[in-house]
Amino acid sequence: MASPVMVNSKNAAPSPDDVASITQQIYGSKTSQESLDASYTLTDMLLNSVGFRGLNGYGILATIQKSAVDKKSAGKREGAMFALGAIFERFPPKQKLSEIVFLLQETDLLPTALDALADKQSAVKEGARYALDTLFASLSAEAKVFGLLPVLQSYLKRTVGKWQGVLGAIELIGRMADKAKMGLESAEVEKDKDILREAMGKRLEALIPLIENGMHDLKTEVSKQSIKSMNSLTTLIQNEDVIPKIPIVVKSIEDPSAEAQRKAIHALSQTTFVAVVNSPVLALLTPILERSLNTSTTSQEVIRQTVIVVENLTKLVHDPMEARTFLPKLRPGVQRVYEAASLPEVREIGQRALDVMLKAMGEQQNGDSQTTEAIQPVRGEEVLAVLEKKIQENGGLLNYPGDSDVWALAKNYISEIVAEDANQRAPERVKQNTAAYLSPLMEDGKGDAVGDAMEQYYIDEDQRKFGKPVTIDDGETEIVNANFSLGYGGMLLLRHTNMRLLKGHRYGLCGRNGSGKSTLMRSIANGKLEGFPPQDQVRTCFVEHNQGEDADLTILEYCLKDPDLPTEDHDRVVRVLEEVGFTSGPEGRQAQPVGSLSGGWKMKLALARAMIMNADVFLLDEPTNHLDVGNVKWLQEYLKSHTEISSLIVSHDSGFLDEVCTDIYNYESKKLVHYKGNLSELVKVKPEAKAYYTLSATQQSFKFPPPGILTGVKSNTRRILAMTDCTFTYPGAAKPNLMNVSASLSLSSRVAIIGPNGAGKSTLIKVLTGEVIPQQGKVEKHPNLRIGYIKQHALEHVEQHLEKTPN
């Protein structure tokens, strides 16, 4: 055998005899350790001389494949796995072009290792496991998706093969998905996970059927691993609407019975979809929806629910390319419902769904295509054109024997990887994914030059499409620029995100219920958010109702004794309270006890406390709760007029956010994404944000217990609760909260109590329920009447039972 050509190395190419000598040690050693050591010796020798060219130049890979199937010698089979493992472990980190050789060029190499998992000798199986594990660990996120994953898919599509190999391939796919799970590791590691998660998610359409076949395998081990891997694959889906329904959907895949399908469709039909629907969601849900539409025994009710789900999902598919990939599978079934459903209501729903599908796919009813302004993704062939141009500008490729065969495979491989990085808006990864592959094929330094040029090209392209990064505006003062992650219990809320606050700006904090908005603000207020400036640098104040424990103090005493407030003179505190609306003097509101305040006035007291603190940042959590229209207007004007104070605001009052916000931070995929403008401006670019502020956005549903029958009362109009000429004054208050009030209620009463803050609305209810006793007048109620009462401060009920455990 002739020596392969030695290039780009100070060390001479090893002779065939040198290689043969080490190869003999690999396959003829008496112990496993000697064989492994020889494998490392051979790998290092190649890396220090001829590199990837030696793998085929010396026939090393051919020898591995031949030895791996040598039925007469377990030692040779074990040695083959050790040699393979050493190559997998040490080549990719130092010479990434080797991936092309053993994943794309020698397509039988990885299947050989998978087949070895079925070997009768445990040492061979352990060697195969070592080879597969080292390969998985040594590949980058992109290489796992574009190199390893296609080989595993091809292996699972084979009609012949041993179940242990199938099990190993399915386990690797599941492990790949697990590797993409969000965590709190370094920013670099988390970025790798982001790339892997996004890239794998786009391939769920092909992966789910393969794993589904394994779920129904007769071999118990394969079936169990397939179910585990399917659950791992579903973690790639980041749609918050679908995530709670994933277990029941996976169950319907595992058990394809009509009953399991009915339950899954019913659960989906009860879901309010607000988040954008992308290919991972469609890949999971399209098969079950298609099966429901195409099964002749599906009931009309399930058909109706299925079509509703299709319509609701389709409305949120913003990418016509994704729509054209998945919706044609559902279109014939929906068309049949529209044309042949027995119930007119179902036919009408079918027509509506069909119209939405055609619009999503960019088609009119007459079949004409609609134009779309969506940003088109970068394609591999586009990258290849740019790559070949940059290579030629830097001297072209070397032309050693065999290089052209490798480059024929490598150019498309590199182009697809770069396209993925560009589409995920990670142009900073382009250099490492081009230079590392090109360097062995070009003169010294030229590979890096091409990498730099490619990276700059896609940075420029990214800025052309999406705009340049936001910079500090002229005259603006930055008071916070923090990078942090945030968790609550075992739940990850924000991951490696950034928050930047400018002085005088008012930021709305937006996201679906349960995303962690209030948790973020409380963490800032408590000084527990990593990276956020401490209180001695940026003073923050969490504006909330927290005056319950000081209910007996007067408002002025409460402000003067607050340990969190700076030492202030009496007169300034009085002035600030007057500015907010608390009149001074013995007869004024400042002399009233804190416990007598309504919810709206308690919020104003919290705002006064923040003003006395001279806070740099107000943290406002639902500030308009319990405020009447006049006080909401006052709060809006106050925040807008104090341009020296920054605010971070959580509110479900969309009008309030529109009025006061200068910027919005929106929760997106565990990140805070900044948008200039108010909530209306956000909705223009993120239409799904509108649903955050509707009743359907809530994740909880409240069900009140049935009231039962009131014994002795047969008429719904008979008086069962009444108060007559009642007057009530809180202890220490200068004037009554209620004066000569009368009211009467029956079973048919549906009464709303309205009025400005402090008018006595809550006090009226307290008098009716018997929580407080009026000084004048009387309260009457039916002896069998039971009253359910939920206060504004809902936890007050819990605080009355602190001796009890939650369960």
From TrEMBL:
Pfam families: ABC_tran, HEAT_EF3_GNC1, HEAT_EF3_N. GO terms for molecular function: ATP binding; ATP hydrolysis activity. Residues 477-695 form the ABC transporter domain. SMART domains: AAA (SM00382). GO terms for cellular component: cytoplasm. Keywords: ATP-binding, Cytoplasm, Nucleotide-binding, Repeat. CDD domains: ABCF_EF-3. GO terms for biological process: gene expression. This is ABC transporter domain-containing protein. SUPFAM superfamilies: ARM repeat (SSF48371), P-loop containing nucleoside triphosphate hydrolases (SSF52540). Belongs to the ABC transporter superfamily. ABCF family. EF3 subfamily. The keyword Nucleotide-binding applies. It is found in: Cytoplasm. InterPro entries: AAA+_ATPase, ABC_transporter-like_ATP-bd, ABC_transporter-like_CS, ABCF, ARM-like, ARM-type_fold, P-loop_NTPase.
